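A reminder from the course coordinator: this example appears on the midterm review sheet, so study it carefully.

Given structure:
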């Protein structure tokens, strides 16, 4: 049985990237959105890439940047994946093919389920990420939301990863995975002592919590929880 993925995002220091990779992070996220306190210059991102040294794929996070600019940064830093975290549409994602991680910022109501057809315009994308919509911020909000809105999207993704973000950290990651059925978590502020400063103990706790689960066991537990809720509601 496979285990859920852990993406550590907003990494801003080589030492933090090195530790995350040593602890077993599956993906390392580097922020290139200028308004963010975690935004990196290309030179700083290159230092982080050197620190990771191929031990974990690097994901560049961009918000509504022209594809040509993204491609230039990706080449200079050595990014493996490109996360499109703004309002980019299918055309922008198609420019990066299987390197695209398409993010959706959503605000589902209680009990609402997101339409799996959301994924249809992105047949070549590597995977998908769902974060909570915020009036000003693009990620790193620490705000939880009804993760069960993602239930059913994993099947629509056709085996491609669906990651859940927003208010996820040690102590909440397991519940977010069980509720959403996602293939992994994307965590930023949930493992920080300050913006862009990762806390070693929180990193360890998160990765142990998530990697201690298996996808099959998580699916079984989520199904049992759903049955129990149905019995109570009935």
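Designed residues:
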């Amino acid at each position: 049985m496979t285990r859920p993925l852990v993406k550590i995002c907003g990494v801003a220091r080589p030492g933090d990237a090195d530790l995350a990779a040593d602890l077993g992070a599956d993906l390392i996220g580097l922020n290139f959105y200028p308004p963010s306190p975690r935004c990196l210059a290309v030179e700083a991102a290159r230092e982080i890439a050197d620190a990771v040294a191929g031990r974990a794929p690097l994901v560049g996070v961009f918000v509504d940047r022209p594809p040509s600019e993204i491609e230039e940064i990706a080449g200079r830093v050595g990014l493996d994946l490109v996360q499109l975290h703004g309002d980019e549409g299918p055309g922008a994602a198609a420019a990066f093919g299987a390197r695209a991680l398409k993010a959706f910022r959503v605000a589902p109501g209680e009990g609402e389920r997101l339409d799996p057809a959301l994924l249809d315009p992105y047949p070549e994308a590597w995977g998908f990420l769902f974060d909570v919509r915020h009036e000003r911020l693009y990620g790193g909000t620490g705000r939880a939301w009804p993760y069960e809105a993602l239930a059913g999207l994993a099947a629509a993704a056709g085996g491609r990863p669906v990651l859940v973000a927003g208010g996820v950290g040690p102590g909440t990651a397991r519940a977010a995975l069980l509720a959403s059925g996602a293939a992994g978590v994307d965590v930023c502020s949930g493992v920080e002592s300050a913006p862009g400063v990762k806390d070693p103990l929180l990193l360890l706790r998160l990765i142990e919590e998530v990697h201690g689960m298996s996808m099959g066991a998580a699916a079984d537990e989520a199904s049992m929880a759903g049955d129990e809720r149905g019995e109570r509601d009935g």
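Strands lie at 5-8, 27-31, 58-62, 81-84, 100-106, 127-132, 162-165, 184-187, 192-194, 197-198. The radius of gyration is 17 Å.
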